[in-house]
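Minimal example, chain plus glycine.
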Amino acid sequence: MKTVKVNLQKRSYNIHIKTDLLPESGKYIKELNIGKKIFIITDKNTAKLYYTTVKKSLIKEGFEVHKFTLNPGEHLKSFVNIVKLSNKILPLLPDRNSTIIALGGGVIGDLSGFLASLILRGINLIQIPTTLLSQVDSSVGGKTGINTNYGKNLIGTFYQPRLVLIDPKTLQTLPDREFLCGYVETVKYALINNYKFFEYLDNNKSKIKNKNLNFLTDIIQTAISSKAEIVAQDETEKTGTRALLNLGHTFGHALEKEVDYSDLIKHGEAVAIGIILAAKFSYKLGFCDKTIITQIETHFKSFDIPVSAKEIIYDWNINNLFNNMLSDKKNQNGQIAFILFKNIGQTFLARNITHNNIYDFLESVFYPS
Ligand code: NAD
Ligand code: GLY
């Protein structure tokens, strides 16, 4: 088994990664010395595939297990569901040593994490992520949240889990489109600060396409170690270090918002296009060489990951895209923040880009003459 530690003093925790870890989950959860009551929050797709395995393993260790199954989808991240789940959990008399387990992808993880941070002002949270995106990103680092009419994840908390259990075998049942979305977030770590990792991924494309379990375990470990290090340096995104994890997201979120978070473009796809736009913008502003754009594009294209917004819709409204970027969580004093490239594996947070520069860039990409 591979174990990565997130070092956050009293709130430090382990991430265990191993094929066939789910049937042993109870054993590792028991080691935490938590109370008997466990509330598993999951969605229908995940429950059907993995709930019984996790439940059996917990019962074997003497836990009392309660299950809450929701219909899958981004809409789950709402105040309504926080209220509904609270009204189901509170009558079961949780105490501060009770635990919520998030069994599923990032949607279940974000919602369950938020709820765990609220019940009795905080009960234990364990993440058992079952999508690649949640295994390399959302299950670690403590960002929880729900969506509102004003945008995604604008309400939430920083609340670290006590343990993260990753079983890469769960990726074998994941639809390809979801897998590739998680893969984009994996490549993101390479692009941020690890050129060797980019080369490694680029040289092993067939192992990724075949979902080779040893290889997946290996790259999940590299990705999540990178996240753990960044989170340990800047847990609540104050210094700019954690903001690097937002590579591709300033443009990506603007695209997602423009299609109303519909299935036309999934988060990972928007991030892939956003990464290419960030590379093009970095080149236009004179920060990097043109070749990095082609290198990243070629890598994504070999997986059929979209690299241009025009592959999704031909006509985008750049006024709307620009306005969407104005509500990015990284912004300060009305200045839009971007993660830009100096090179592959060398990125930085840029805050001093003028609105004119941004608008000109959007015009040059979306309305080329
Ligand atoms: P998701 O949770 O919606 O899961 C995608 C789909 O896969 C769902 O239909 C789900 O039921 C299904 N599924 C899950 N595991 C499966 C499996 N093993 N086999 C078959 N189907 C399975 O989506 P996601 O991409 O995991 O997460 C996206 C969410 O994560 C967004 O809400 C985003 O805001 C959030 N996020 C949070 C952070 C963070 O740091 N907290 C970081 C990145 C993204
Ligand atoms: N996914 C970005 C972060 O955790 O900061």
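The chain has 14 helices and eleven strands. The chain has a mean pLDDT of 96.
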